[in-house]
Amino acid sequence: MPRQPHPDPNPEDKNPAKNRSKKKPRPSPPRRNTKVTGERSEAAFLYRASNPDFNFGIAKPWGDSRRYDFILDNGRRLHRIQIKYTESIRMQAYETRATYSLGKGRAVYTKDDIDFIAAHVVPLDIWYIIPVEICTPQPMLRFYPHRQAKKMRLEPYREAWHLLQEEETPEQGKITLQASADDTIYNIVIPSEGADPRSRSAPQSRDPYTSCAPPDSETTPTHLPKSAAPWPIPPLKILTTRKGPQILPTPMPD
Length: 254
What we know:
elongated
């Protein structure tokens, strides 16, 4: 009697299609800790900003409740700096956003929050120093340091550390005040208290702050317009008289 073959205990194992479906999925690579990456970019900014060529003073605010990461002192004013980083290319550009978490959503940085955004392209160790006024209208920040793209919106701010050395950002501009002095007027006399202003023999004030007349010159009072007065003259209140008979005070006898 011929021997019967033993039945296969796992007949499905011979089907390769079914075997592939039973394979365990490959474990996904561990997700990078974005907080650690951000801390490394902050350390890189501290290293670059403390370069002797810049000689910036750097301070770190206590805690993390502020919307800026550093306070930078350029010797004339203080700048609030927020650090952003990007390490992957998306749509042919390194990108990040000039936003922060606010409740369940996101808000855009404004001049009330910070002064500059320092964006770090981590793989190339390139920095973009961007005034916040540039970021507020278009918070999506896209960088092209790996391409010849000098006409892109943010490429002029690549390694623009000199912006941190200026007193004001280029968008705000600087206000220049210009003043000029007129010729000295030597015919103004302010009579002293108790003197008759119509009398030429009235004692003259020698106070350099109340009289511009030279000490040995004969001068007469000069009426000047209100705009030329050395102090502000309040407007006069004109009171209307009541209709009807007016009651005047009895004149005093001489």
